[in-house]
Design a protein that fits this description.
CATH architecture of the largest domain: 3-Layer(aba) Sandwich
Radius of gyration: 28 Å
Structural class: alpha/beta
Distance between the termini: 80 Å
CATH superfamily of the largest domain: Vaccinia Virus protein VP39
Strand content: 5-15%
Number of strands: 12
CATH topology of the largest domain: Rossmann fold
Length: about 525
């Protein structure tokens, strides 16, 4: 049998989405399709390993079963995809899938449960009325099982053409769901090109601890890990949304990062990545936090509501907001403050922010000033508009470095460097390379203050930043003004005369036709 390619799998899983497309919102059905892909993958890997052990032990089933108990995942018989496929005509197929997922979680409790005892499938219900009336629901689930039983979705490692082909398919699906479902889905996914750029700007050394405190589906965290160039690193993430946390956990396993630590919870109000009573420290922190999140901070206990944890950033027990508390309607600097406070003494952070972070005043202005005076900020990079799902606004990347070697600041305006597309603009490989090379030259001390590249990059001194009242708005430093071409008045007048002459001829012709029509 020919090896299955990335495109084969991408096409097959996208076809499986046709079962739901049109009748159910993508933000709903994405969880069903992605969960089924995960279940199919575990089942096929199980079969591949079982075949290997049976061959090794000359068909001794008991020995093979014992060996399987030590594999990455235990797949109970009724949790196996084949069992569900064979049961596809059952009237309670939704319930059977739910039982299969629950028992799969139980059999792999250490891997598939959060530290709070939540399973990754707890928010997914294949017996839900969201999938339609019982008859329609059963037909959809049956079709979904048939689609995933396709030859092109044989996910056994021995049949796959690339080590990360499954992870690639998962990323492909998530990206397509994000573009289909707009803002709601875009919040859990950072476009691949932006993730690649952030990963390269913060490139981690072997042995690094890498963290994304708002990790969404985990794509950015995986990119940052892949940039290390060896297997010697550890990944940590936290995500507030339960369904998206489950996607991230599955994403880690599908990429082979079984030891990644992904926590579920609100990073600001309840940070879970800790060592004892202290926040865990990292070599690299990357994030694309929600833009200008409203009501990010203070929460008061409500009578009788045990789910609401009292929290006040003014008295944050980790002292993350000692530079100042951001306004309650805009959480951007809250996430940045958290990221900086979780860097170790030589750590580096890269964060995607809306442009308002660069120049807004009041408490944000004070926090920005203190951060700049500490000489933690290294680079401000303006990105093109319409790169992100669900919002056309342009964003910027801030890079912070605890081991910064100069008291200068790099500004890059990359807003005009992109490939235009119908729905989404895209950073090309050359655009990413241009930004990264400029940044690396600056970090290596090769760039002097002043214009580095006309209309693209500028190195500012601390004095210049201070003179600008700690305003980091990129046009203050990178002059992108384009002079309009001189107008040739004589040529324009000649063109006007010519057009008027032609207009008179056309008018005369129309009058002739009108005369003929009235005869």
């Amino acid at each position: 049998m020919n090896k299955i390619t990335q495109k084969d799998i991408n096409d097959a899983v996208w076809k499986a989405c046709d079962t739901f497309r049109g009748s159910i919102d993508p933000s709903v059905y994405k969880d069903y399709v992605l969960t089924m892909l995960f279940l199919k993958y575990l089942s096929d890997v199980h079969d591949d390993k079982m075949e290997g052990y049976l061959a090794k032990y000359n068909g001794d089933l008991e020995r093979a079963k014992r060996a399987m108990q030590h594999e990455r995942f235990i797949v109970p018989e009724h949790s196996h995809f084949k069992f569900l496929y064979d049961s596809r005509n059952e009237a309670n197929i939704g319930e059977l899938i739910n039982i299969a997922l629950t028992d799969l979680e139980e059999a792999n409790r250490e891997k598939l449960y959060s530290e709070d005892g939540a399973g990754i499938f707890q928010n997914i219900d294949f017996n839900s009325s969201k999938l339609g009336e019982p008859k329609d629901k059963n037909q959809r689930l049956k079709t979904l099982l048939i689609d995933f039983n396709s030859e092109k979705l044989d996910l056994r490692p021995s049949h796959l053409g690339g080590a990360d082909i499954i992870g690639g398919a998962y990323e492909f699906l998530i990206a397509n769901f994000a573009s289909d479902a707009g803002k709601k889905a875009g919040e859990f996914f950072t476009p691949a090109e932006v993730s690649t750029l952030l990963a390269k700007l913060t490139k981690s050394k072997p042995g690094s601890r890498i963290c994304d405190p708002t990790c969404g589906s985990g794509s950015l965290l995986i990119k940052a890990g892949n940039e290390v160039g060896s297997d010697n690193f550890s990944l940590y993430g936290q995500e507030a949304n339960g369904s998206t946390w489950a996607l991230a956990v599955m994403n880690m396993f599908l990429h082979g990062f079984d030891n990644a630590t992904i926590r579920w919870g609100d990073t600001i109000r309840n940070p879970k990545l800790k060592e004892g009573d202290q926040l865990m420290k990292f070599d690299t922190v990357v994030a694309n936090p929600p833009f200008s999140l409203d009501k990010w901070g203070k929460v008061e206990d409500k009578d009788g509501d045990k789910t609401t944890i009292s929290y006040d950033p003014e008295t944050d027990k980790y002292n993350r907001f000692w530079r100042g508390v951001p306004p309650k309607s805009k959480g951007d600097w809250a996430f940045i403050s958290h990221m900086i406070e979780t860097l170790n003494e030589h750590g580096k952070a890269g964060v995607v922010v809306p442009h308002g972070v660069l120049f807004r005043g009041s408490s944000e202005g004070k926090i920005r000033r203190k951060t700049i005076e500490e000489n933690l900020l290294e680079a401000v990079i303006g990105l093109p508009a319409n790169l992100f799902f669900g919002t056309g606004i342009p964003a910027a990347i801030l890079v912070f470095n605890k081991q910064k070697t100069s008291n200068n600041f790099l500004f890059i305006d990359a807003s005009k460097h992109y490939e235009s597309a119908k729905n989404q603009n895209k950073l090309r490989e050359s655009d990413i390379e241009h930004i990264v090379n400029t940044y690396r030259d600056f970090a290596a001390g090769k760039l002097q203050p002043g214009v580095v590249e006309d209309k693209y990059s500028y190195v500012a001194t601390a004095d210049e930043i201070q003179e600008n009242d700690f305003n980091l708005n990129i046009p203050r430093y990178v002059d992108t003004f384009e002079e309009e071409a001189e107008v040739d008045i004589v040529a324009v007048q000649q063109e006007i005369d010519k057009l008027e002459d032609e207009l008179m001829k056309v008018q005369a012709e129309i009058n002739q036709y009108l005369k003929q029509l009235t005869v």
